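Sanity check

After download, print the first record. It should look like this:
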Amino acid sequence: MADIKLDKISTKAPKNFEKEKVKAELPAIYQELDALQNILYAQSKYAVLIVLQGMDASGKDGLIKNVFSTVNPQGIMVQSYKVPTAEELSHDFLWRIHKYAPAKGMIQVFNRSHYEDILVTRVHKMIDDATAAKRMKAINDFESLLTTHNNTVILKFYLHVSQEEQHTRLEERIRDKTKQWKYNEQDFKEAALRKEYFKAYGDCFKHCNKIKWVIVPSDQNWYKEYLVATTLRDVLKKLNMQYPGMKK
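Expected structure tokens:
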């Protein structure tokens, strides 16, 4: 796989996408997702895992709220991953991940994920390159296990936000009372490590690519939501799912 260099990829929607037109299309797309998720849940043949990665303020929370607010809450779960607890650190790094893998019929969204253990840990020199390589192999094996043994469809999205837009959004967390609860002074320090994170992500994209990554330009929320929603919709359509008949 060719190297993915994030600093060479645009964070904005392609010029042929018009904001108002795309926003007008979104309600119908969300309706399709609702219908497809209903069949997914009823048939209980496939599971779906959605991995969301991105720098702080790339819009993971808003994406989850807007794209998945119309689907049946019985058929979706969201798990956010923060700094590991003492109990989690006493196990292998995938222990806290595997217990939230989706059951058949379910959509599971990871807000950050197992990839934090080869991203933050490398940027902050918590692990060396040899350990990172072993973890990347373990991640590939883990994802292969889910896809081959539990009919799990995995979609991996990197939300790609510009440095300028990220700074604007972080500043909003200081000024906007509705967003102040998200404020963490550490976020600005992490944002300053952009080059280091891009390097770690590049290595991640290169070595954990058996399931391809979708790089999502995320400066404009309407396009970010459109791209993720249509990607999921199209993947679910290809499963050719059907409602099961009456139980005998």
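If your output differs, re-run the checksum step. Summary of this record's structure: The mean pLDDT is 96.
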